[in-house]
Design brief:
Blueprint: H1 11-15, E1 21-24, E2 40-43, E3 49-60, E4 67-74, E5 81-86, E6 92-94, E7 108-119, E8 123-124, H2 130-166, E9 168-169, E10 172-173, H3 178-214, H4 219-229, H5 231-256, H6 258-261, H7 266-274, H8 284-300, H9 307-318, H10 333-357, H11 365-395, H12 401-429, H13 432-445, H14 453-467
Parallel strand pairs: 1-4, 2-4
Antiparallel strand pairs: 2-3, 3-7, 4-5, 5-8, 6-7, 9-10
Helix pairs in contact: 2-3, 2-5, 2-7, 3-4, 3-5, 3-11, 3-12, 3-14, 5-7, 5-8, 5-11, 8-11, 9-10, 10-11, 10-12, 10-13, 11-12, 12-13, 12-14
Bound molecules: flavin-adenine dinucleotide (FAD).
């Protein structure tokens, strides 16, 4: 019997930075539809190698990678397999560097595999397991992208704040104008909220990992499983982080005025570099669709009870609103009630949409986008409230005055967005009495006591301007 060769361990070289790696999934005709790639792998007659032929596109690190994780289909397989391909194997050529709008410091190339001979032991995992591997990599890529977006946003805020305190118009620093303070407070609040959601999901992933390991699972499997469990959150963070970053750099350009549009100022590059984040690691449309798709699949498998809470909300809709006494003086009492109602709004709209379209809901992308927005905003608003609650328990309320204002500002925004998304969904599939009832329900579940958001934003902006940078 022939001995199976042991695969060369490339990890020490990767960890020491001796090897650089690239991830080769996308092809000219296979982007969002990642499992449709045409790159082929064929076993040689002696069974010792796979020969890979095909073309990959938009490959980051492409120009200088020593090792490529290449996704290809073996023969006429339905699903992708993954291969560890070293440049030294030969049969690899590439085009010139892509001319891009931003991230020009990053190498992006088309890579061609022409009869590239790969030892059979370099098949990663099992045949046809490549798509699963690709998705798992994307899960971690998404949360990492979100974190990087939060970091980039903080840098842009610090630059814009400094500029606003230095730039004088009408005899005063532009940071003294309410319109500029509004911008500073809004970007800071959204970044703080996004970061809260990242902290929350990361801790959840770490806790799940530790629990799997304590239960006897091996570490590598536990890593994958814990990320898989929070794949919805990873998609949420990717979308939210990248959109907050784009909003932040856009407002950054505006705060810089003409200098924001100058290629000699820092906002020009920040603006261009930020834009890719809504496109790679799955476009934001794909990630929005995925959040709801994964949620529905979990409900169908019985891992998540969606329909019972949705039915309970429908029942509540028919009843008289509860005006019962509640302890409004407790920390975030009103806000938590508003959050709980926000979840009811999401359940009401999604439950009705599922009942209406059943399996055909996947064809109603506009509604799915609305549902995703409700989910994303609810998750982030809850995260910022939980974070500030924890901070207050550690430092006391007085020391967290600004953070508390930001939690409230964010919640108001989340409710406003969710109300608009809910309305757009309801009016696109419900009519007559059903529509009226649902719109009334939406109004009831997205009600929040008025709050002087201008004063709150001014407080936040003053704090940031006094510190001269992103201060949290
Ligand atoms: C700078 C850069 C670096 C990259 N690095 C890598 C890398 O290292 N490795 C790698 O494998 N790939 C990489 N990519 C590829 C990247 O992941 C893809 O560009 C991305 O997944 C989108 O695919 P696409 O460009 O083919 O767009 P398409 O899939 O053609 O999408 C075009 C538009 O249609 C929308 N769309 C597509 N399908 C649907 C659908 N089902 N429903 C609704 N809307 C839809 C999209 O959201 C988008 O708005 C990189 C791309 C860039 C630009």
């Amino acid at each position: 019997m022939e001995m199976k060769h042991k695969r060369k361990n490339i990890f020490p070289s990767l960890l020491q930075g001796e090897y650089k790696a690239a991830y080769c999934l996308t092809e000219p005709d296979s982007g969002s539809d990642a499992n449709s790639g045409k790159t082929k792998a064929k076993l040689t007659a002696d069974g010792k190698h796979y020969v890979i032929n095909g073309q990959k596109m938009w490959i980051t690190n492409g120009g200088f990678a020593d090792v490529y994780i290449v996704f290809a289909k073996i023969d006429d397989d339905k699903n992708l397999s993954a291969f560890i391909v070293e440049k030294a194997f030969g049969g690899i050529t590439m085009n010139e560097e892509e001319k891009k709008m931003g991230i020009k410091g990053s190498s992006t190339r088309q890579i061609f595999f022409n009869d590239c001979k790969v030892p059979v032991e370099n098949l990663l995992s099992e045949r046809e397991n490549g798509f699963k591997i690709a998705v798992n990599i994307l899960n971690i890529g998404r949360i990492k992208l979100g974190v990087a977006a939060v970091g980039g946003s903080k840098m842009a805020i610090s630059l814009a704040t400094k500029y606003a305190t230095e730039r004088k118009q009408f005899g005063v620093a532009i940071s003294t104008f309410g319109a500029i303070q509004h911008k500073i407070a809004e970007v800071v609040t959204r970044v703080f909220a996004s970061e809260s959601a990242h902290y929350r999901a990361s801790q959840n992933i770490d806790d799940a990992y530790n629990a799997f390991v304590a239960g006897g699972m091996d570490s590598a499997k536990a890593r994958l499983k814990s990320l898989e469990e929070f794949a919805i959150e990873c998609a949420i963070l990717k979308v939210h982080g990248s959109e907050v970053l784009d909003f932040t750099v856009d407002e950054g350009v505006q705060i810089y005025g003409g200098m924001g549009f100058s290629a000699e100022g820092p906002m020009d590059r920040a603006y261009r570099d930020a834009r890719i984040n809504r496109i790679f690691e799955g476009t934001n449309e794909i990630n929005r669709l995925l959040t709801i798709d994964m949620l529905l699949k979990r409900a169908m498998k019985g891992h998540l009870d969606l329909m019972n809470p949705a039915m309970a909300v429908q029942k509540e809709l028919m009843s008289i609103p509860d005006f019962g006494a509640s302890d409004d003086t407790a920390l975030f009492a009103k806000e938590k009630k508003a959050l709980s109602n926000l979840k009811k709004a999401g359940l009401m709209v999604s439950g009705a949409a599922i009942q209406k379209f059943m399996a055909k809901l996947s064809e109603e992308q506009e509604i799915l986008m609305n549902l995703a927005d409700m989910l994303i905003e609810g998750y982030v608003a809850e995260s910022v409230i939980l974070r500030v609650e924890k901070l207050i328990s550690m430092r006391g309320e007085k020391a967290c005055e600004i953070e508390k204002e930001m939690a409230i500002i964010y919640l108001h925004r989340a409710i406003e967005l969710a109300a608009a998304a809910g309305k757009s969904a309801i009016t696109s599939f419900a009519e007559g009495d059903e529509q009226r009832l649902m719109l009334m329900g939406l109004k009831r579940f997205t009600k929040i006591d008025p709050y002087n958001l201008k004063t709150a934003r001014r407080k936040v902006a003053k704090h940031v301007i006094d510190k001269g940078e992103y201060p949290f």
